[in-house]
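Dear colleagues,

For the upcoming journal club I promised to circulate an example of a predicted protein-ligand complex. I picked one with glycyl-adenosine-5'-phosphate because it came up in last month's discussion. The inputs are reproduced below in full, followed by the predicted structure.
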Amino acid sequence: MGGTKRGAMANKEDLFKKIVAHAKEYGFVFQSSEIYDGLAAAYDYGQNGVELKNNIRQYWWKAMVQMHENIVGVDAAIFMHPATWKASGHVDAFNDPMIDNKDSKKRYRADVLVEDHMAKIEGKIAKEVTKAKKRFGDAFDEKQFVETNPRVVANTRKIEEIKNRLYPAMDNEDMAAIKSLIEDLAIACPVSGSRNWTDVRQFNLMFSTSIGSLSEGATEIYLRPETAQGIFVNFLNIQKTGRMKIPFGIAQTGKAFRNEIVARQFIFRMREFEQMEMQFFVRPGEEMKWYEYWKEQRMNWQLAMGIPAESYRFHDHDKLAHYANAATDIEFDFPMGFKELEGIHSRTDFDLKAHEEHSGKKLRYHDPEMNQSYIPYVVETSIGLDRQFLAVLSFAYTEEKLEDGSERVVMKLPPFLAPYKVAVFPLIKKDGLPEKASEVMGKLKNDFMCFYEEKDTIGKRYRRHDAIGTPYCITVDHQTLEDDTVTIRERDSMKQDRVSIDEISAIVGERLSVKL
Ligand code: GAP
């Protein structure tokens, strides 16, 4: 059997298209309001997608809340007092610099255009290193090569020079300087190929709406752009009512909204998406220890799914957000390349301090061991559920050529995340087999998500369940009526065994445990 995994596939763009088409065909993800030609950057999760998404969310909740006695959950409202967003800095600083290409009429984030340009130069450096590694074999000293090879040195210097112009321009919100940088680097529009750009302008990403009827005097409020602030404003409520002792965490999952300028690439960047965030409150001065701890924990959470380590890398931020003293991203090797999946940020006491100032309410913790009150420091882990979904889906998507020359698409999802764990089929639709299969289904469905199917040949039914990642298919045949045994077929190996009905639960259950 020859499998085609993502890395081996010649054309990653092609692979991405296939994954998007597969997600639609098999009820994972649909374009929002498709019958009206869709709404840009909004997506709906179908019957299989919602199961996979729920399973990822539960896996996260288990790792964060169930496995940590000092972490509890919260479910805050999406609507928050508008002062929240003034305090958090989002009203004044949650902006992206945008630029339009006058020929293609496409809008881009100006800083992303520059970062993509730097990524291309980094790609050239990586190529040189790979070539040299091959040439020199074991004797290769990468550090020395990078420091001395003239082409690599020149390209490294180019990147430094660009950073030295981009970051101060971003910090100072100097839109003219960003525009000059784009012009000096001769960056062209990827669509029109032209360099006919507008000026760079700031664009606030928050969606606003109004609350209350006009006669009462409506108030402008925002749809939350992150779930984190719902945690900060509840810090003291939870600390007091839960008698939480520092260090402790508050976890939350829920929708967030951003009016993204560049909202392409399927569910990677959406205007309505879901976050899974955890704020960990620590003693001032201990934040770096916890930052390292959460970096390791979050990477382990990824690896426990069985996705290989080479699909991930850390990317430490050169340019820190206004609230952070350290920050890193876990990047995943998506079909469109390595991109941010999760952020781990040391946010200092910025948020609680700002909410104290704006609300006039004390947000302090009395540390009984130190006999001192202080504003805790915060280490945050923040992951996009939809991005994690895309990571899992793109890892799992596999095309295989079978020994008999036929092909199959199989979603090699980690079994505990699969929408259905078991599919139950009567071999044929008569002779009492559907009734017996329903009986088997009845025994299993209390413990597992099960799917009952009697239409089409067994082969076609197997293919449909391969395509949605069901780890086990059970077939009830005439022998079942005699001795209460069935065939159980495993998704990846396609191996079939004959087992007694009473054994099915244990076989399936064993594959579903995940060790954290
Ligand atoms: N509270 C910190 C925060 O929100 P962020 O880096 O802006 O940090 C965290 O977002 C994560 O949320 C990202 O790593 C990404 O996975 C996800 N995310 C952010 N914007 C998104 C979007 N437009 N669509 C989908 N996911 C998004």
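Two points we might discuss: The first strand starts at residue 2 and ends at 4. The chain has a mean pLDDT of 94.

See you all on Thursday,
B. R.
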